[in-house]
TrEMBL record:
Gene Ontology MF terms: ATP binding; tryptophan-tRNA ligase activity
Presence of the UniProt keyword Protein biosynthesis in the record: yes
Enzyme class at the top of the EC tree: ligase
Keywords of this entry: Aminoacyl-tRNA synthetase, ATP-binding, Ligase, Nucleotide-binding, Protein biosynthesis
Protein name, UniProt field: tryptophan--tRNA ligase
UniProt source species: Triatoma infestans (Assassin bug)
Catalytic activity: tRNA(Trp) + L-tryptophan + ATP = L-tryptophyl-tRNA(Trp) + AMP + diphosphate + H(+)
Length: 233
């Protein structure tokens, strides 16, 4: 609620650039903003209204924990979030065919699509299936959260190689020991080491990842060396 419409739209454009940078095939990818698309596609808005008719205020309060002081935008948004799971929301792509939907999402989005799974059959659609993705932890550790107000909690796609190197070396939480001698003797803890955790996402060679884990856990690989591998990856 603290964002203006203009700020939200700017963030949406930035997010779209991030998606494109991940290598999605432009011929198979349709990225849209609700600000623009709802006004251009009557079928999308019709599906929003159909979903809204299927969910009561008591239900959304129970699912999302809304209170009497929450703005009405929060109450109306779940239906907007759910509508893209219905293929007829995109007639220019699917026509009027009712095609099953697969939704990759983070666990915090699960309530929206559990609601969608309840509504979809009532509207004649298959229940959408979900793939829950894993959160990338903040640089400060697995039990901390990335923050948009603190740029040192995350590595951004817009960061320069120099910025990435500085962030990893300065802020990435280490699972190593307090001294080289102790580390050689006891080894590092890959479960809490952020450099290793990031490699689980970005290093494509699984065999190499297993080798790094073995070397770090045994103490043969030092924290600085592990961070160097991440920076170069």
């Amino acid at each position: 609620k603290d964002l203006t419409v203009e700020e939200a739209n700017k963030m949406a454009i930035s997010n779209a650039k991030d998606i494109i940078a991940c290598g999605f095939d432009v011929k198979k990818t349709f990225i849209f903003s609700d600000f623009n698309y709802i006004g251009q596609c009557p079928e999308f808005y019709k599906n929003i209204v159909r979903i809204q008719k299927c969910v009561t205020f008591n239900q959304v309060k129970g699912i999302f924990g809304f209170g009497d002081s929450d703005v009405i935008g929060k109450i109306s948004f779940p239906a907007i979030q759910a509508a893209p799971a219905l293929s007829t929301s995109f007639p220019q792509i699917f026509g009027n065919k009712k095609i099953p939907c697969l939704i990759p999402c983070a666990i915090d989005q699960d309530p929206y699509f559990r609601m969608t799974r309840d509504v979809a059959p009532r509207l004649g659609y298959s229940k959408p299936a979900l793939l829950h993705s894993t959160f990338i932890p903040a640089l400060q550790g697995a039990h901390t959260k990335m923050s948009g107000s603190d740029e040192n909690t995350a590595i951004f796609l817009t960061d320069s190689p120099k910025q990435i190197k500085t962030k990893v070396n300065k802020y990435a939480f280490s699972g190593g020991q307090t001294s080289i001698e102790e580390h050689r003797k006891l080894g590092g803890d890959c479960k809490v080491d952020i450099s290793y955790q990031y490699l689980r996402f970005f290093l494509e060679d699984d065999e190499r990842l297993k080798e790094i884990e073995k070397e770090y856990t045994s103490g043969n690989l030092l924290t600085g060396e592990l961070k160097k591998i991440l920076i170069e990856t």
